[in-house]
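Morning!

This is the sequence you dropped in the shared folder:
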Amino acid sequence: MIRINLLPVRAAKKKESIRFQLTVAGLVTFLVVAVSMAAYMVVRSEAAGLKEQIASGQQELEQLQKKIGELSKIKEQKRVVEEKLRIISELEANKTGPVKLFQRVSGAMPDKAWIKSLREDGMVITIEGFASDDEIIADAMRGLERVGLSTVELDVAQRVVEKETGVEVVSFVIRAERKAPSKPQEKK
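The structure's back. Tokens below.
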């Protein structure tokens, strides 16, 4: 019988099996490395995109903070301007106040009463003048109450002789309080 040596075939098959296993292991390793590299590149690009979004978000935040700063400056300027306008309107009201007060007081005086002086000290008004008699002074006091003055009181009333004409008149001093002007409600 012929003896066939199968050892070299088995060794060749074993070598071929090892070669195939090494090739498969190399391909699997290559595929794992390639997939890992691809995943790394995807994650890296996503991270770069997120960094760009963060940077643009921070830029936008800085711009908005600048705008908020400008807006708060504008609000402060608006408040200052409104305060100035309020002061101006108050000054304008006070500018015409004495004229209106004198007009009201002179309108309240009867025909035979004359105003010598009119002083205003805060809310207290002092009126000095002359009248032909005591009844005219009483009419003047009632007239002052009608035009909106409160606490009208007669301080002094005395008979004097007018130097220029020599006519006897009653010199008087009346004190009254002006009612506080009602302040307009501020819009909030």
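Headline: The two ends are 120 Å apart (CA to CA).

More detail when I'm at my desk.
O.
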